[in-house]
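User: Design a sequence. Structure:
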């Protein structure tokens, strides 16, 4: 069982729970660490826990029958995902890879379902989460078909700062250009060129191993 401060730090949704709901959530969460490059799960695996990123960076992707891989989302610390899979008790439909050493918070299914059935605050969070994820995946389908590499990079970066999915997070993310390339499905060199274009437009600032967002609204709407 994790401490109250740990749960509040990694799960913004927990701050709106009643005290009994908060304690139930706390009893159901444990941690697991994955090394850089580790497969967290494959398509068809049964990961029986609702999952949060406590530390690190995770890539969600799929691979077609022809072997083509497509990134669905990148998830930084503060992200919680897999609620649909947990509710339906079905195998995972995507792959998860730790892009750096990553610590995941795992909430057992029985705890998740108790909150789902008893907590109004938890259900409000899930509704907002579902809406934002749906918008994200629709946008991914659009960007893959219509936008160039710099615009795809801009959209992927903007999602990592989405205020609904990552409430209370600051505008700086420790991330390498290699990691950004993996998240956006492009080489490190192409990602570097895209970052330079976006920085020249005043949308972000590239630091040593970090990116600071200067204009999130324009970054999210950038089309090249």
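Assistant: Done.
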């Amino acid at each position: 069982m994790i401490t109250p401060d740990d749960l509040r730090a990694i799960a913004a949704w927990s701050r709106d729970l009643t005290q009994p709901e908060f304690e139930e959530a706390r009893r159901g969460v444990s941690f697991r660490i994955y090394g850089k490059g580790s497969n967290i799960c494959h398509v068809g695996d049964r990961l029986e826990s609702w999952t949060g990123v406590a530390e690190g960076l995770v890539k969600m992707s799929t691979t077609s029958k022809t072997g083509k891989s497509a990134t669905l989302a990148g998830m930084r610390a503060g992200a919680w995902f897999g609620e649909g899979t947990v509710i339906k008790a079905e195998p995972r439909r995507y792959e998860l890879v730790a892009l750096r050493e990553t610590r995941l918070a795992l909430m057992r299914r029985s705890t998740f379902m108790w909150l789902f059935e008893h907590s109004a605050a938890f259900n409000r969070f899930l509704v907002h989460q579902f809406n934002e994820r749906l918008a994200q995946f629709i946008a991914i389908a659009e960007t893959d078909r219509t936008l160039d590499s710099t615009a795809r990079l801009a959209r992927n970066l903007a999602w990592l700062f989405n205020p609904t999915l990552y409430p209370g997070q600051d505008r700086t993310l420790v991330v390498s250009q290699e990691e950004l390339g993996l998240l956006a499905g492009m080489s490190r060199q192409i990602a570097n060129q895209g970052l330079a274009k976006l920085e020249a437009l005043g949308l972000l600032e590239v630091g040593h191993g970090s990116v600071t967002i200067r204009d999130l609204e324009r970054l999210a709407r950038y089309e090249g």
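The chain is about 45% helix and 25% strand. The first helix runs from residue 4 to 10.
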